[in-house]
Design brief:
Chain B: Keywords: Oxidoreductase. The complex is a heterodimer of chains A (369) and B (105). With 369 residues, chain A is an alpha/beta fold. Chain A has 8 helices and 18 strands. In chain A, α2 packs across α8. The N and C termini of chain B lie far apart (47 Å). Classes of the chains: A alpha/beta (369), B alpha/beta (105).
Chain lengths: 369, 105
Amino acid sequence: MKAYDLIVIGGGLVGGAIAWGAARQGASVALLDEGDVAYRAARGNFGLVWVQSKGAGMPPYAHWSRRSSEVWPQLAAALLQATELDVALRQPGGLHFCLNDAELEARAEMIQRMHNESGGSGTRMVGRAEMKAMVPAIGDGVVGASYCPIDGHANPLKLLRALHAALLKLGGAYLPGRTVDAIAGGEGGGFTLQAGAERFACAKLVIAAGLGSRKLAPMVGLDMPVTPLRGQIIVTERMRPFLDYATHVVRQTDEGSVLLGDSQEDVGFDNGTTVPVMQDIAARNLVMFPGLKDANIVRVWGALRVMTPDGYPIYEQSRTHPGAFAATCHSGVTLAGAHALELAPAILAGALPSGFDVFSSRRFHVQAA
Amino acid sequence: MFRRLEDARADISFSFEGREVTARPGDSVAAALLAAGLRSFRATPVSGAPRAPWCMMGACFDCLVEIDGVASRQACMTQVAPGMRVRRQRGAKALESDPAAETAA
């Protein structure tokens, strides 16, 4: 039976970042990935490094997102150096567009509230004229925006590939096609994992299996009550650059493709696409960028976000099985920097970063008074 | 490179980059241009490399050309019409310009 310092269950962006981050510390690491039967949120991602609205109502999440945005350039540079893969990180700032005065007012209140709760991320409201100067192609139906200077975007598929490649370069194991069936606590600490006919042993364990975590977590005394929330994405042909900024609904990639999205549907484990939702996405984006009306659509897909009951991440070490950790969020790109460079070393050292108690799933178990 | 199997009359006239090209009724733009010996239909958006049709059935988007002023048309899916003006697709299509933006500029 092969034994590792750390096994990460889940080969997506959360698991990949933690596995590579740990391997960089010199740990022997195996990354167990399921197969194409898994829902693979990392392969349907929009690609935002998004800070401005993350953690409203939960300052530690706001600070963690901000921290990740700060260290993201180090992540991109380290991956480029290790793998020669450019994950196309750009951090020109991000805009959240408002389509009427009520939206603008609500947004301004939310940004002010976050500022009061969590301190300054530099986010401010921009009026029509300033926004038009920033994004000349913006439609007349957009009345203003909130702008956060530390928002950005990256290519999520290149990020996933680079994390896997960098892990392999450090001697880590990427093991696809492994569905973990059972986890047992070993004698004197450590864990044994059963995946089909194979068994693996490790000193520490991270469950970062997205929607699959729900079933795995109880095997080591953890609780990860995650549920799917579908998003549909439309991709156009490559267009000449017209939008450098990250936005919550539309993103132009480094190579010119335009991604349109931001739909949210509670439809269970159905990652398909539907015409009415895509019509809504297209109509909304035409208000923001009327010039997209003749852009050819080349791809569409649906993917399932991994959502906790309150939308905030879960990070937790098991009380009954010390050394077993849970990590889940729906911000695998945004948080990749912090996951690789700060969370992974902390987990290897045996404890979550200080102040992470608030991310425990115990927050969902408050007893009635 | 390509040769027509049948020697029917090519009696439709259209233009490619301002040069007259003849085609047979029913030809797609891609078929007519290949039969006329054209090798490069477009330059790619990222590297500017030349491209020609590959699948000839609407799937690969490698045959993009500008037809009568409309960018990024699939040459293999568009039937030739007399007088059609076809140009190479150079790089990515520009965003359709917003009249308001032009007025403001």
